[in-house]
Specification:
The structure holds 2 protein chains of 2 kinds. By secondary structure, chain A is mostly helical. Chain A is built from 19 helices and no strands. The longest helix of chain A is centred in the C-terminal third of the chain and has 34 residues. Classes of the chains: A mainly alpha, B mainly alpha.
């Protein structure tokens, strides 16, 4: 009898502790999950679908590797933001001076704007499947994104975005709908190997594009600013790390299921975009096609909101404007105006008739990853400064891992550029 | 006779906005004139080298993009 009461008490205690822990996590959760899920943006989904249709399941193992890489990079921004209470742009200006500061800010604005165009490309393509003209899509999206931030609270904005993050999981049921051979996915996909044809320029291009979709310069700036805007402190760092880890797992799972969809049904069909994949899927399994289109729109929307915010936050930090989502329009007019201007200008580009939209999408991913090491070097230098980071500075292992990532990306970028200049090198 | 400017109010407002922004940039440059992290000359050169190298790579990619589009 006594034992029964003891067991029940223990269960109740554990249950209460679990609920308490969950509540604490839900308070802190946000920046890590949002940045990682938004990382599977329209460009990302386009890259994954194209990867699946060209290489089947052959590159799934590479995406699994990219999960820890994304975590290692993004975890540094959590610590930096929580300790310095400054966004990344301001941290660079403060630590390295104006020359490097302006350099980084211009890099960021350019790459972000280009990436934002790819988000609009994805969203217009997704809704065109349902017969909605691109002009309407751009207008709807602009209104939606503006309404989302104008309510004047970071918390509300974050929870709305988290709802869109959940929708990103739509690729999981889509994969089950196309009935893949799971033994092939596990056997062929998870064991590292080169696809048939070996090293080719195309393989390097897709490896680069996949890295570009998993880690990008805007993510570093976004997460750090987001951590600051949320008001995270040093004591919240472990939860911030956990949040980022959950996000990294989430992003890899979505990417894998996306590849499984096109790798199963559209392998060898030379699909070039997610929208084309969705249209192709409609003929085979209508629901899977619709899911892919909805997922593409959602991915573009998430990417657009995060990327335009990353730019506005960075600019606001350096320019000294009020730059928090907790500010109302009257309190931070420049911050909101810039956010809207960035979105509108990117939206207009998509409406230019005859623009090579799919090619732009894939190239922007590759350009983003090529410029990534520059941002990472500053991040590593900042994380190694004891005066700034105190006990939260990088450990030796973290330094080795992050340096390996930088060297790996520079090497891969160099090899791809060599294959561009000397096409006969890699056949 | 009241002398009046030939410039439109919009032009005046625009010029004031530009002048203000130039002033803000100067203030930012002054505020962050002294970097908190002191880098040796070689580290600065290495950083600049990486930057230039990456920009060259991006230019090659842009060339590839143009050749594919045309």
């Amino acid at each position: 009898m006594k034992e029964g009461i003891g067991a029940r008490a223990r269960f109740f205690y554990r249950y209460r502790r679990f609920i308490k822990t969950l509540k604490i996590y839900l308070m802190i959760a946000g920046p890590g999950i949002i940045v990682m899920v938004a990382d599977n943006d329209a460009g990302g989904i386009t890259t994954y679908t194209a990867t699946g249709s060209i290489f089947g399941y052959d590159l799934i193992w590479f995406l699994v590797l990219l999960g820890p890489i994304a975590y290692i990079v993004q975890e540094m921004t959590v610590r930096l933001g929580a300790v310095t209470k400054r966004g990344h742009a301001e941290a660079i200006f403060d630590a390295f001076g104006t020359f490097w500061g302006w350099f980084s800010l211009s890099d960021l604005l350019l790459v972000n704007w280009l990436t934002l165009i790819t988000e609009f490309i994805g969203m217009t393509a997704a809704l065109s499947i349902f017969g909605i003209p691109p002009v309407f899509t751009v207008i709807i999206v602009l209104l939606l994104l503006i309404v989302m931030i104008l309510q004047g609270r970071y918390w509300t904005w974050e929870k709305i975005v988290l709802l869109f993050c959940v929708l990103n999981l739509i690729y999981i049921p889509a994969a089950f709908l196309v009935n893949p051979s799971w033994s092939s996915v596990l056997g062929q996909g998870l064991i590292p190997h080169l696809p048939a044809g070996g090293f080719t320029g195309q393989l390097f291009f897709f490896l680069m594009a996949n890295i570009g979709t998993t880690i990008a310069p805007w993510m570093v700036f976004f997460q750090q600013s987001s951590v600051v805007d949320k008001g995270m402190k040093e004591k919240d760092i472990p939860w911030g790390k956990f949040d980022t880890m959950i996000g990294a797992v989430f992003t890899v799972i979505v990417a894998i299921f996306c590849i499984v969809v096109t790798g199963t049904v559209l392998y060898g069909t030379n699909i070039q975009s997610a929208a084309q994949a969705a249209q192709g899927l409609m003929h085979i399994n209508q629901y899977a096609g619709v899911f892919l289109a909805i997922g593409l729109f959602d991915a573009g929307l998430l990417g657009a909101v995060c990327i335009s915010l990353a730019s506005s936050w960075a600019f606001g930090e350096v320019w000294g404007w009020a730059h928090s989502l907790n500010n109302r329009i009257k309190e931070a007019p420049w911050f909101y105006l810039l956010y809207i201007l960035i979105l509108v200008s990117a939206g207009i580009v998509v409406l230019i008739p005859g623009a090579p939209l799919v090619l732009i999408t894939l190239f922007v991913q590759v350009i983003a990853v090529t410029l990534l090491p520059a941002a990472l070097v500053f991040l590593i230098l900042l994380l190694n400064n004891e005066e700034i980071m105190g006990k939260y500075k990088n450990t030796k292992v973290q330094n080795i891992l992050s340096t390996v990532i930088v060297v790996f990306i520079i090497t891969l970028s160099t090899i791809y550029c060599l294959s561009v200049v000397f096409p006969q090198l890699f056949r | 006779m009241v002398p009046h400017s030939t410039k439109s109010p919009f032009h005046k407002k625009f010029m004031t906005a530009i002048t203000n922004q130039v002033r803000v940039v100067r203030e930012i440059n002054e505020k962050y004139a002294t970097p908190r992290i002191k880098m040796t000359r070689w580290v600065s050169i290495a950083l600049l080298g990486i930057r230039i190298y990456l920009i060259v790579l991006v230019l090659i990619l842009a060339y590839k993009f143009v050749t594919l589009v045309i």
